[in-house]
Write a structure and sequence with these properties.
Length: 331
Amino acid sequence: MLEAVEASPEELLASSAAIETDDPYTSTAAYAMLGIDRSGELSPALRSTLETRGAFARMIAGSAGGPGLLTVRTDRPVTEHFGVAAWSVDHVLYGGESGRADGIEELLRSALGELRERGASLVSVRVRADDLAALAAFQSHGFQVTDTMVTHSIKPRRPDQPMALRREYGDLTIMAHTTELLPDVDSSVVDAFADLLFRYYRTSRFHADRRLDPDLASSYYSRWCREAFAGRWSDGVIAAYRGSEPVGFVAGKFDDLAIEASGIKIYGTGLAVSSGHGGFSALVTAIADDVDTDISEFTTHVSNFPVHAAIANHGSPRTLWATHALHLWLD
């Protein structure tokens, strides 16, 4: 019989590598298909999660299937913005397909019991769209899908060339506002982008959740925009202008864990918006051509077809994965 038990950091770290090797739905497995080894990142990632105040873990090892683990932490930005006790399931790993749904369901049963005792309200998780067993396990506990995101990867065309701080793309000017240059960006530009996000970005997981106020959901992304231009939630911003009019930007971050544990530079696009005029296509080109990185990751909503087209038209992108965001309310 499968039984989930509380796991110490030492127990979790001792078992994690073997579990990851047998789990086909990890980012490590996806990157292995590109010939890139990221297997050394799991242990420090787990350690980082467990160092978060209040975080905890569950493990399972039974004769009916492979071993599994799950970690949960508080979600401070969501808690502070929406005024709810928000938690996030950070890691869900299970060794293989045999007994996978039952094993993950048991891990969740134990973790959700703990969260109820702690007064949690909103619990969120991201699950690979092709991991049907995990999806079934989460949905059996009442989790509901709130969005689907697709992540593509592009290798830079000119990896050894210094990044251009300014370039022309048709009638657009692309500016690389590096971390050092962000303080020089006029506040009217930041206001314009924050307003653009508030008015038009309506496909997030927070907008899809009927328990959350849609205007509050929109202001979450406006805040993200302001934090990105302040250099707190980004490693710089790449923006597109039509004359003096701001028409689009991408705020991205380098994956510090990939750099430290694997020696790989991965630039991930965290927040992006465009009002048209070919802005996103120009931004994709600038990032893929000029950012000093080994891999650029572009993550966008599954229904954002113009963005998918812009990515597909540049170089030879590879789709890494699609993930569903799921929410569960415990109160």
